[in-house]
Amino acid sequence: MNWSQETEKVADWIAEYNKNAGTKGYVLGLSGGLDSAVVAALLIEAVGKNNVYLYFIDIESNPQSAKDAWDIAQKLKMPLTSVSLTHPFREYVKYASAWLKKGVHSTLQLANIKARDRMKYLYDMGADNECLVSGTGNLSELQVGYCCYDKKTRALTPDGLKYFYELNKNDIVFSLNLKTKYLEEKIISKMN
């Protein structure tokens, strides 16, 4: 299949998922990166611009990321809400500094705290707008345990959608290869 047919299938699945959930659309954190830009375009294709809410959530973010997010939103002709959680993040780090690990592990811990803070905000916005929250994690992030999934997160498999807790090592999930623009079957090699 070519990119256009795959895009249409994914957009149809996104629209159907929204319909079945009985929600009004989707909330998405637009980071300025490729993953969130592609997901934003798919969401808009699936449910229309009026049913997608884009947020840039600054937590000590690189200024270039903010610029890129604004540029992407402008190209998509979409409003982008910018929110700064830097102050609450820094206050938490001061409070938690006694038990945060030092050295190499602290960098990963701080990055994960930022990711969780962003997801908490997006889930609040999803609830406020009666929308689903769309994640943008990719397979490499899943393999290193970086994404913030919850018990309702599902993956597309040959047998349909499955919750992450239903997946096992050696199960097959579908992943979008951004180079070839095809969906590929991937075998889960590691479970957290």
Q: What does this 3D model show about the protein?
A:
With 192 residues, this protein is α/β, with parallel strands linked by helices. 46% of the residues lie in helices and 20% in strands. The chain has two domains: 3-136, Rossmann fold (3-Layer(aba) Sandwich); 148-192, no CATH class. It has a four-stranded parallel sheet, with helices on both faces. The protein has a two-stranded antiparallel sheet with strand order 5-6. It has a two-stranded antiparallel sheet with strand order 7-8. Strand 5 and strand 6 (160-163) form a beta hairpin. Helix 1 crosses helix 2. The protein is globular and about 50 Å long. The chain starts with a helix and ends in a 5-residue tail after the last strand.
Give a brief description.
The protein is α/β, with parallel strands linked by helices.
- Mind telling me the C-alpha Rg? 17 Å
Strand order of the largest sheet: 3-2-1-4
Strand content: 15-25%
* Major beta sheet summary: 4 strands, parallel
Number of helical segments with 4 or more residues: 6
Low-confidence stretches: none
Terminal residue distance: 33 Å
- Please name the fourth-level CATH homologous superfamily of the largest domain: HUPs
Notable traits:
192 residues; alpha/beta; Rossmann fold; two-stranded antiparallel sheet; 8 strands; globular
